[in-house]
Amino acid sequence: MDIDVGPVDPSVLYEQDLHVSSAVWEGQERGLLRCQEHTSLLHQWKLTDEQIKLVDKAGFGFFRKIGPMSLNNSLISALVERWRRETNTFHLPLGEMTITLDEVALVLGLEIDGDPIVGSKVGDEVAMDMCGRLLGKLPSAANKEVNCSRVKLNWLKRTFSECPEDASFDVVQAHTRAYLLYLIGSTIFATTDGDKVSVKYLPLFEDFDQAGRYAWGASALACLYRALGNASLKSQSNICGCLTLLQCWSYFHLDIGRPEKSEACFPLALLWKGKGSRSKTDLSEYRRELDDLDPSKITWCPYERFENLIPPHIKDKLILGRSKTTLVCFEKIELHFPDRCLRQFGKRQPIPQKVKRRDRKNRRLDDLDTSMSLACEEWAERGDHIVDSPGGGNVVDDGAYMEWYARISITKLYREAFLESQVMNMVK
Question: According to its UniProt record, what is one Pfam family this protein matches (predicted)?
């Protein structure tokens, strides 16, 4: 019997031919992804008390405490194989799961409510002007410290990591902006360029009060969604974005490669600080563990026990985790689908609405502008689109959901297990 490498019903996972799982099933291994997050040198920045106050004001007071995190490339690579950019969710044997807005706030301590982070790319001349005006110093193109409006993280650290004791307030602000640019460039907005960060983010820190009004967490999630989607394509070999968030999310929800917790504190990423997981476990073993995932290995609602640690201003916004909305970060537009993962909120999971196909090719600039305008409008209405489980006659039992899910998804990546599951789904 010939069996397609894909779901029985392809209406949801319509990009299966591009997905890494199609290559895995054919025995074409791409190896471990190169994880492009650069937190290892964050501890070398020496911030003064005055700088710390500005960092707090800009919205990064909790986030800066996380610092360097050791990444498990094998675990991350295995998780990426389950990510589907059609739904912005992980497709696991027992259903879909995802990283939601409330989890960004809890794990990273970033604001998930506020103004969207939008803007446009800048040219080299404008980038240099920004550096001169907001940092007070210019990177050298001759020394390759700047290229295509992106500055090297190493230049920022070498030039600004220690603020002079007798510095004026203008100099203190410049050093703090450099730190914040380094911080986001090595974490939430890390790119596959590796050691560079775009100067386009620098004006976001011109006014520290205004910086504190941005929804940094929402933009961080938009970037991670985009990074996961790109890395899930079989043609890719790198992943960027906030991989600390991705790894911590897995530790909280899945008992796979999970280390022992540290003492509880906020932000919750610190529970895993300095705790190495089974980093020597290879990708194939993690892949098999995800294939064999059963209810005993999943914690749907892992944060309830930490409620007393959550600051009130964070707790007040957690309901946005259930907002079916649009996330933006400059040119990136990503959809947030908590309605597909309601069990993560302690609710029954109905069969989700059909996914709309996204045209990702040859998008013209004017279409992008229009889409960004609509995306910002949807974000402005985020509080009006809180999803919940349906009641009354619309309730779908778990068996009906799982029967639907088995037909639209790919729950096994190993060839033998995949064939067995597909045959069973075809005869139903």
Answer: PMD
Q: Which bin fits 349, alpha (ψ -120 to 50), beta or left (φ > 0)? A: beta
The dihedral region occupied by 97, where left means phi > 0, alpha psi between -120 and 50, and beta the remainder, is: beta
Distance CA 40, CA 124 (A): 28
In whole angstroms, what is the distance from residue 231 CA to residue 86 CA? Answer: 13
Q: How would you label 35-64 residue by residue, b for 16+ Cβ within 10 Å and e otherwise?
A: bbbbbeebeebebbeebeebbebbbbbbbb
pTM (global) more than 0.90: yes
Instruction: Tell me the per-residue pLDDT of 257-282, one tens digit each, with 9 for 90 and over.
Output: 999 988 889 999 999 987 555 556 79
Query: Do 208 and 54 touch, CB atoms closer than 8 A?
Result: yes
On the question of pLDDT at 179 being above 90, the answer is yes
Distance CA 207, CA 386 (A): 32
Residue 388's SS3 state is coil
CA distance 245 to 63: 11
Q: Cα 239 to chain center, whole Å?
A: 11
To the nearest 10 degrees (0 to 180), the angle between helices 243-253 and 101-108 is 100
Element (H, E) at 131: helix 124-134
pLDDT in tens, 336-373: 999 999 999 999 999 999 888 877 654 444 555 668 99
Instruction: Give the span between the Cα atoms of 224 and 146, in whole angstroms.
Output: 25
185: helix, strand or coil: helix
Alpha-carbon distances of 372 from 222, 365, 377, rounded to whole Å: 13, 10, 9
Between CA 131 and CA 364 the distance in angstroms is 30
